[in-house]
Structure formats: C-alpha cells, structure tokens
Amino acid sequence: MTNADILILSNGPGEVTTWVRPVVKALRQQLGCDRAVFRISVILSPCPNATGKEAQIVQSYPEVDRVQGAEHFFPFLLWGKTAGNWDWRDRGVVVFLGGDQFFPVVIGSRFKYRTVVYAEWDARWHRWIDRFGVMKPDIIAKAPKNYRHKLTVVGDLMADVARGSKGAEELGELGEQGKQGKQGKQGKQGKQGKQRELTQNPVLEGSEGEEKDQNQVPFERSEGSTLNTSPIEWIGLLPGSKPAKLIQGVPLGLAIAEHIHKVRPQTRFLIPVAPTLDLPTLARFADPYENPLIQKLGWGAARLVMLDGGDEGEFSNIRVTDNDSSETHPYSQNQVSLSEVSTLFRAGFEPKLSSPTKQNSLNLPLHSRLQMASGVTVELTTEFPAHEILSQCCLCLTTVGANTAELGSLGVPMIVLLPTQQLDAMRAWDGLPGLLARLPGVGTSFAKLTNWLILQQKRLFAWPNIWAKAEIVPEVVGQLKPQDVAQLVLEYLEHPQKLEDMRSRLRAVRGESGAAQKLAQLVQEELTNPQPPMTNDK
User: Fold this and answer.
1) What is the pLDDT of residues 80-91, one digit of tens each?
2) Regarding beta strands 377-381 and 395-398, do their DSSP bridges make them parallel or antiparallel, or are they unpaired?
3) Is residue 327 packed enough to be buried (19+ CB in 10 Å), middle (13-18) or exposed (0-12)?
C-alpha cells in the first residue's frame, strides 16, 4: 500500500477527548506507527463550547503528527490551505469526528480522499460520503434504502472510556494525599520522588480530623458497574466552567455537600476542574468576599487548601487575595456589590489573581481541595478529561451542557441542577437566541427573556433525557434550596437500586463498546479502495 494521509476533522473539548483520542490510538494499532507510511493530521473547526485548548490537547496525543487550531479552519475549508502550508499525499481518508458533516464532503471532494463519518445520532449527505460508522442500528433504519450499504454499526466511542477505568485508584490517591498532608514528615521518603507506603486501601483514609473505621471494607466495584460498594462514597460536583454558571454552581454545590455530609459523613466530594480554570480562580467563586451570591443566598463558602511541595509535606492555606497581608481571614478583602459582579460576568469577565505567582497553574500542588469552615472538604482534580475518576462516582450533581452528555455516556447517575436565581446565566443556546444573548448591552435582557420562555416550555435539558425523549435523570429547575437538593441526593444514596436503575437506563440509550477499533477498520478498508488522482487545487 502506498503512503497515505489520514485527515481527522473535529471541534469541541468533548470530541477531541472522547472521540479523537481513542480513534487515533486504534488507527495506530491497526495501521502501524511508521509515520512515513501513515500520517495522522487533525484539523479543528469552531465550536461554541470550545475552551481554546483543544489544539494543545490533541498535540499531546503521541499518535498525531500535525494539528491545526480552529482559528485557521475556514481558509482551509474554502481554499484547502493550512496555516503551516502543509503538504498532502496522493492517497488519504477524511475522518469526521465532530463538527458539521458537510465539512468532509467539501474537503474529501477537493483532496480526492475517501470519507468516513462517525454518526452518533444521525447520518447526512449519504450520497457524497463513502462510509458511515454509526452508534446504533436505528440510524441505519432511518437512512434511504439505496444508501444503507454505506452504514455500519460500530458502537459508542465513549463507551470505551468507561470500560477499563482506573478511577478507583485515583480516588484512593486523593484520600491518601489528604492524610499525607496531616502526617507531614512521615510521608517523606527521600528527595527522589516521595514514595507513599499504602498498607491499606487508600480510599479508606479520611479527611483531616476524621478517624478511620476499622470495620470498613476495601473499595470494590462490580464488573461494568459505577456503583461503589465501599462505605466511602464519592459524589462529583460539576458546576460548569463559565463565570455565569460558576457564580451559582460553586456555592450551591458546597452548600449541598455540607447538608449531605451531616447525614452521611462517609460521603466524599470532588470537583473536576475545567482546563480553562486555574485553582485560585475557581476558589474565588467560593469566597464570600468575591462572590456576593454567597452572602445574599446563604450558600456555601470555602477556602483553597493545597499540599505544600516542600520537605515538610504539610498543608498550607492559599489565600485568594490581592495582597499578601498576614491577616488570618482566609478570604479576600475586596468586597464588591452583586450588581457589579454580575455586570462583569455578563460582559465575559473572568476573575484573575493580581499576583503572577498565584496565577501560574502549571506547577500544580500535589493535592488541593476546597475546605469549608465546618471541616467538610471538596477534592479538586485537574486531570482532563476526568472520565476515569468520574466513572467511579456513585452520583454526580451537574449543570446543564456537555457534562450531561459525558456523564451519560459513562453511565454515571446524575442529578441536573438548573438554578434560576440568576436567570441570565445560560447563554450557550444555538442560533439566533444565542447570538442575541451574547450581544453587549442588551444581551442580558435577551438572555433573561429567552431563558424564561424556554423554561415555560417544560422542555428537557439534559442530553441523556433528550436522547431518550424522557426524563431518565432528574432535572431540578427553579429557585433551588441546597437542603432540598441534598434531600433528593440522600434519597438516592439510601436506595442504591435507584442509582443502578438510572445507570442501566443511561447505558440503554447509548451504543456498544469497541467503536474505535471498528472505525479504524473502516478507515483501513477505504484506504484500499481505488482513489482518483489528486488535483493541484490544494
């Protein structure tokens, strides 16, 4: 077989982490690692949910040879020119893994490459696309009969993420690191990498000030189940990544966690930190002097605690302040009004620390958490994507958006929270409503009106519910009270069969695992098909 290019089209953070990553691994396994024979290029297109770090994430995949960011996409689509003036081989396949299915039609036609599209929910442009790898058989049933031979069921790309998860060990490390911080020098074992001595299952280690129950059993998980059979149970908190959501989501999640912990002290909490956030910035949304909603609504507040990387291995409190005063108050002294904060957030302002040393999120501490005055802590993980950890949570509390799709694909039970205390927080609608909501000056009014009208429709917001056309995960909408949400969570925790039923229904709306390998097989088959000679218009 002659040398070939594999050109992957993708867009958002979910696609590059849950679709591109497993597919490029499978392609290298299927086609080999000789770059002189098979070269993998990834070109990103714009996405409303993009973080701006998609290209950087794809560049970290060793299987990928070249990456172009979304800002250069349309010149490539229109004229076939890349920002780096890439060369292209005569033979190749365009693989669609996110964006608009029309893109591979245009690019495949220009380059005279074969085209393979991964269709999660629907397949389009049947006449011009060579092959489709679809998630479920009903997509084939909806296709025109004379094109159905092009469609092959490959399964769910995200199902492979849930399978083979190592989240139990990673959650265990969180608990162990908490104990290490308290023990100080006892955890130190030389300058070359501080080795931890795990004499017992680390997930059994409690937070500061808590004693370990000697009767607890090790962390165990049944095959294919996300439900935790250990007395220690983990709940994931996903408040979002944009300021308009974080200003409500962070203190609401903290308050809910505090209510749950009073009844079930064995419960642990974690937040997977979005890659667009550094830890001090996240902590400012938990600071009552930075986030006036906390004082206005009486929701949860916390301070950021990090494990010092020094020789002592002790915890040091990182104050989210604009100065280095020696005051003992853990919060910033810059009080602003609710209207001022809301105005800044609506304008797209994201709070930053004035001290460059505290803004640097590259040298992250060994361990970090948000700690409330009551002693309840919320662990913070900066691993991205955090699927392997989230898949070990018995339940997650999440805002609306892509998080619900990822949790649903992982089969993780969830409760979707949509507080309306700040009605203009949702601005990610598609089409004209989304554009109007983001207009300067009048955008806030449009956002409030749009969201009010949408809420009146009693529509479904979580992606698993949209897929199933029924509420298989609870959606809690309105003027939310932390104690009411906590009571709902406790109802599920005290009746684990309800969680198992939810998990089963989540998996029922998705496809089978093994999709990446099957999609790679389709690509290999298309590489062997005759291809017309390339033109010189690239």
Assistant:
1) 999 999 999 999
2) unpaired
3) exposed
